[in-house]
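Re: [help] complex structure
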Amino acid sequence: MKITAINGSPNIKDSLSGRIIGQIEKLLGVKTEARHAIKLINSTAKEDAFALLDADVLLIVFPLYVDSFPMPLIEVLTRLKEAAKGAASKPRVYAIVNCGLYEQEQTALVLNMARHFAEESGLPWGYGLGIGHGGMLSSFGDDWSKGPASVVYKALSEMAGAIHGGSSGPDVFAAPAFPRFLYNLAANWGFRSMAKKNGVLKTIRARPYARKEAAK
Ligand SMILES: Cc1cc2nc3c(=O)[nH]c(=O)nc-3n(C[C@H](O)[C@H](O)[C@H](O)COP(=O)(O)O)c2cc1C
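Output below.
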């Protein structure tokens, strides 16, 4: 089975999307050909898009950006849609999105967009997996099969089974088992540390674009 994975994270070096691809690759027992969207858009070769379609499965893994796809991925999907018109190979599309907010349901809309992309391109749609509080997953080691990450591991394992079976289904949502208030505490601490490091902690509550009358 040939699987092409597209990593939609603009963060090339160390992304959660990359780690998710690593996890599902192990579960699939098949080496995927993972490509970074941001590198693909710097290639002007149209053949690239055709090459990506030359597979049994197209696995799109990305972070949620403003309730949508990151820009480089939008460009890749646009090119793929064009290339799919003339391509003999029609890989089944599966999508995995992770988001920073606590609720995994935040990813429902972008998974609809991914399904529309498949439909508009004439490619069979598998299903999507939306993962909540992604920031939490980043803090775990490589073994996600135990502990709080095991919920996500199970969902990935089920998707690996669906990929092997070529099956479709409704979208699935999962997140590490971790209390919301602790996640929010950790996230706020992280944002404050980042603000301090960048010298903007004192102005963290500034609202430069707030309308004067609204501020009264
Ligand atoms: C520009 C930008 C926009 C984002 N928009 C959202 C968003 O709309 N909702 C959300 O839950 N997280 C949002 N996030 C958080 C990312 O989805 C989150 O950090 C994710 O885990 C990053 O995954 P990656 O390491 O694979 O890039 C955003 C992050 C950035 C940098």
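The pocket of flavin mononucleotide is lined by residues 9, 11, 15-17, 63-67, 98-101, 106, 134-135 (CB under 6 Å).
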